[in-house]
Amino acid sequence: MPDIVFRSRGLKRFYLMGEVTIQALRGVDLELYQGELVVMLGASGSGKSTLLNILGGLDSPSQGSLVYFPASRRPAASLPATEPRELDLAAASQRELTRFRRHHVGFVFQFYNLISSLTARENVAIVTEISRNPLPPEEALALVGLEHRLDHFPSQLSGGEQQRVAIARAVAKQPDVLLCDEPTGALDFQTGIRVLEVLERINRDTGTSVAIITHNEVIGDMADRVIRLRDGRVDQLLVNAARRSPQALRW
Amino acid sequence: MRTLDRKLYRDLWRLKGQALAIAMVIASGVMTLILSVTTLEALSGARDRFYASHHFAELFVEVKRAPLGKLAQLQRLEGVNLIEPRVRATVRLAVPGYGDPVRGQLLSLPDGRQPLLNQLHLLAGSLPEAGRDDQVVVSDAFAEAHGLAPGDPLEAIINVRRTRLTLAGVALSPEFLFQAAPSDLMPDYRRYAVLWMNERALSRAYGMEGAFNSLTLTLQAGAREADVIAALDLALAHYGALGAQPRHDQQSHRFIEEELNQQRITAVVLPAIFLSVSAFLLNVVMGRLIQTQREQLAVLKAFGYRNSELARHFGLLAASIVLLGWALGVALGAWAASGVAGVYRDYFRFPEMRFGVPPWALALSLLATLGAALSGTWHAVWRAVGRPPAEAMRPPAPHRFRHHWLERLVPALLLGNEGRIVLRNLARQPLKAGFSVLGIALSAGLLMIGAYQLAAVDQMIDQQYREVLQMDVELTFNEPAPAGAAGELRHQPGVLAVETWRRVPVTLIHEHRRYRTSLLGMEPTPGLRRVLDSNGRPQQLPESGVMLTRHLAKLLDARVGDELEVAILEGRRERRTLPLAALVDEPLGVGAYLRRDTLNALLREGPSISGAWLLTDASRTDELHAALWEMPAVAAIGLLSQAERGIRDYMDETLLMVAAIFVGIASSIAFGVAYNNARIAFTERARELATLQVLGYTRAEVARILLGETALLTLAAIPLGWAIGIVFIRLLQGAFSNDLYRMPLVFTPQIFGFAAAGVIVASLLVGALIFRRLGRLDKLRVLKAVE
């Protein structure tokens, strides 16, 4: 059994949206493992984005626990004294969450969320500058096949290119986990496949755990495990015998 | 360069329109302070340096005649440092090629050298050579008015003897920085001169050999002025002394001091109003600007940027805009100050003037604007980072809209869909709408200040020259004449009415307060120089006693019924008393009025007059003037239209020029506020507006929603702006009160109209800019992208 990266127990999240309370998560128990590629499937409103946000320290659960175990592939001795062996994200302070996001998680958002006033290289640099052990931005962009678009601004890039910049930005800090919120949601089929290939390769080559949320069932085929969410709960857990290459996917 | 800093520069560039508009608001506030303070420092610095370098005396004593031998005793008085006697004579001059008679005063200089005190600053030529009787130095304003240069001839009547003079030099004197004839309000450089000549020559011509009639002194360090005055008065009592005068009572010093005091007050009141308004607006605008960056802030936070790093980043964004605005304000303020001070320099005749922005003003303005911007930024950043980033990145939840009671006030059909959206938008965030309204209202209030100054000056001068002064010509005689002499005037061509008057220079004393002015004796019910009550109705002069301008009574701390001591500075030079019988409200000058017979009795003389006022037929003006010049008894012919022009020019060039600058500043604030309000509303609504356009709304229809909101806010702001303006004006009006003029509290429709028009024009301008921007809005991108 590989090492556990996240373990959640009874994770709940309520929101006050306008004048109604939304129960986004109604008690989620799950584990994510070191080096695996997980796809979380669910319809809109199933709570998958909320779960991903909480995993990434962007949001805090209303109830329950979520423990993060720092990467075991790093020797324990090199950890700074302030770095806890385990971090309960449910109980973490804002400061701890910030440090967690800064050093351990890479995000890929559905709408890329690039900073429009910065070039591709700078969009990556803005993250590597605050990381401990980053890749050079150029190298990270080469990983996603954008080495020739370094000095383009987001408005000069296609949607797929923008999303690859966002992926380069997320992997450049060499995170323990890569969290991807509908990374293909705003892209056409061809481009989407391209982006998934990049994610798959990074998972394979670097051993970074990757969690992808999507409502696209087909993408589940490229995962080690598929977690199906419904109504804020884990509905089904499926282990694929073999991962399919993204090129083989069709939708 | 760190990438975050690079983002800062790019963001600044992207926000340049808004950043400039904000910088404009900052610059406006800063400019007011820098302008006022720099002008003030330049003027008072120039005056102080001139006083110090040319040894301006601290006490002035006028006597009838005292022997020079008395000086040794005076020198020994405790507290006296330097003491210098001189001879002062009143003269009439004739300038070759200039028809009007010119009045002047002639002062003696120690033979061939500078005096110890009140030294001359020679601009051309030299001092009279020792032993020369004919050489004179003249005041530069007079020389300039007549184009006189050293070597030019002049003719003077000194002590009824005609004397030929030669101009040796042109000079400035610390004693005559402001050169108005003793009874005049404003200087008339063509008709009034100050001259200096050798003491021996003047003493001989004026019958003052071995004697003096004027003394100037300085005090020893630590000496008490009042004690020295008392000692001097006692020592000189037998020589017709009328009391030693401190600088405070000296005409030139007094006028400059009044003007500087005026500036000192406005340098506090106006910048305080402008700077605090712009600081407030800055705080609000900066907060809202940061709010539009909410999503970017959330993304950075998602990557693990610390709150402190984000606060620094956005703090720097705000600080850069502030620095830009501040630098602009300092530069504009210093530039405007050099213009304004240059104008005052013309009036006050300083030999040199130095400009420097006082460091404390730089620091204060920077601190005020930076503080306001950072607190607004801090507040907004804090609110943004306080929330989990996931929440901040999500498109905002539908706001809590409600049917608003306001909707029910307007029939549904009239309101329409767009109207409903506008109304609900405003009602949803009453605080934000309130701030926008307050911002526009404040700028309207600032606009009212400028409009008020224009209206008040106009009304002030109108009242003086339309209501109070009804004559066309004021004749002054060489010396008091029998009252019957006026009869001859009635037969001059074009003369419609004649009224005579008697004027005598006096020092009014009440308790320890004193003021040098003149008493004007008139007909019991003067028709050509009316005395108005507070409702503007002509009044009768009291049977006995004197009537004072309310401002003068306040200066003397005297109430109706109090006895005033009157030191008469003419003839027998006696001290008498007069009761204060009534007050008169006049906007200009500090007059003291009484019946002519009362004044004649006070002077122990028969019915005599010093001049006459004429009402004339405008078509026969030239004929009349020619006739009047032929009359030897006439010393001066004052044309009221000329005097009015003189004071209007002075007001236009000084006060109103500054007012115009302030109107410009207020307008840029109004525009800056309106532009930022609209731009931020535009950014906040971009998604909604794009949706409507995608749904098939035309650009004009969408613009109606956005601009309808701006229009509604502007309209709501106007009445509030008027109320704020009234408060500002009341603050200001109290400050504009000095010996020269008192600004009336006037609220004309023009003032209100000007302010309303100002903000409406600003809003329309902004509307046009926004409409253009709406055309460039990329609907699909706005809808897709989070930001």
Task: Please tell me about this protein's structure.
The complex is a heterodimer of chains A (251) and B (787). Chain A has 251 residues and is α/β, with parallel strands linked by helices. Chain A contains six helices and ten strands. In chain A, β7, α6 (189-206) and β8 form a beta-alpha-beta unit. In chain A, α3 (120-128) crosses α4, α3 (120-128) packs parallel to α5 and α5 runs parallel beside α6. The longest helix of chain A is centred in the C-terminal third of the chain and has 18 residues, at 189-206. Chain A starts with a strand and ends in a 12-residue tail after the last strand. Mean pLDDT of chain A is 86; it is low at 73-79. Chain B has four domains: 1-57 and 245-390, no CATH class; 88-204, no CATH class; 406-469 and 642-787, no CATH class; 495-616, no CATH class. Chain B has 23 helices and 20 strands. Chain B has 787 residues and is an alpha+beta fold. The mean pLDDT of chain B is 85. The interface between A and B is medium-sized, with 34 and 34 residues.
Name the features.
heterodimer; A: alpha/beta; Rossmann fold; 4-stranded antiparallel β-sheet; 6 helices; B: 787 residues; 4 domains; 6-stranded mixed beta barrel
Strand content of chain A: 25-35%
Instruction: Please give the CATH architecture of chain A.
Output: 3-Layer(aba) Sandwich
Query: Would you count the extended β strands of chain B for me?
Result: 20
Largest interface: A-B, 34 and 34 residues
CATH top-level class of chain A: Alpha Beta
- End-to-end separation of chain B in angstroms reads 25 Å
Rounded Rg of chain B? 34 Å
Low-confidence stretches of chain A: 73-79
Shape of chain B: elongated
Shape of chain A: globular
- Our count of helices of chain A gives 6
CATH superfamily of chain A: P-loop containing nucleotide triphosphate hydrolases
Order of helices and strands of chain A: EEEHEEHEHHHEHEEE
Give the structural class of chain B.
alpha+beta
* Category by helix and strand content of chain A: alpha/beta
Sequence stretches where pLDDT stays below 50 over 5 or more residues of chain B: none
| Fraction in helix of chain B | 40-55%
Q: How many helices of chain B in DSSP terms?
A: 23
Instruction: Bin the helical content of chain A.
Output: 25-40%
Total of domains of chain B: 4
